[in-house]
Amino acid sequence: MDITKELLYGFIFLIILIISHVEGCGSFISLTTSSIGSLSSPNYPDPYPNNTRCIWIMEAPSMYQIDIDITFGGQSVNSICLDFIQVRDGSVISNLHVSTCSFLSSHRVRSSGRWLWILFQSDNGGAGAGLFANYTTVYAGSVINNITSPLTECKSYELSCTNKECVSASYLCDGFNDCGCDDADCDEGHCKGLDMTLGIMYVIGSVLGIVVFIGICMGAYIFERVFHWSHIKKTTEKKEDKRGRLEKCCSLK
Ligand SMILES: [Ca+2]
Fold it and tell me: Any idea where the CUB domain is (predicted)?
């Protein structure tokens, strides 16, 4: 087995793991009776970053619904969505209005009740046009007041994200943006305990990766040398032993 090649692949994987950056965005938007606003994927209209996950949760006042006008372009391969959006009535389990990675131009959605839940997510390669959406509140009257809120209090074992999402506390600092937001109170925001910039973290991670890689290579080299000299020593001893026995045999004659 070529140990050096295996170690090199492992090292490259380690570096990729270190430099993988989970982008975040998303927020909780509390609307008023006259709210008009917009939201977008990061960098819009430029390409969005890889591994981005944004969740916006919007809440309108009593007796108001939310209108949203969506322009979007994602990515798919063999009909499998890679970069996509979903729009629901306030939570991940609410009524689904839109789920697509295809191009949308001024696609209008009206919430059933007072809430909307908008997810934008990208994978680790390539980018489409991204998401841009205008939103506003519209008066609906008391007809929607019998629709109960999909927003719930987080359980004791969950983290309450700033965008009102609840995620398992075990998802804290695992490298994936489960909350769909990137504030300090989101699941990956807590990981900035040392107040280091991402660049410094990359440098430290890379240096540690290189040190580990060199250490493993040196260990493998020393092991290989020790094994090699041990083998030579055993071979030499066998030859000397054989020669000794031959000389003893001949001297007897
Ligand atoms: Ca996480």
Answer: 25-138
